[in-house]
Please model this.
Amino acid sequence: MPAHRLLGSVDAAWLFTRGDESVRIVRVMIAGPQCRLLVNGPGSAHYSEEFSDPASCALQQAEIERRLVAAGYRLHGFNEDRRVHDDLAPGIRDRRR
Model:
């Protein structure tokens, strides 16, 4: 795979846990409308798939999350890229500025 295909920006990440096991799901936006889904865990297991659009990526992610919850995992944490705040309502200030 060419190096430029490996680059992207993390859109959001989710951490699911069950006891001392964890699974981290990361959604990465890559060139154009493409999206990559990375799944790490449990243990050393890992999965990566590329999608032509964010909607297809979100559908696969939802299916993975459904299977995790059915297997006893719980959402432990969620992070999204919050660096851009151009969509704040008028009069609402970003408290970090």
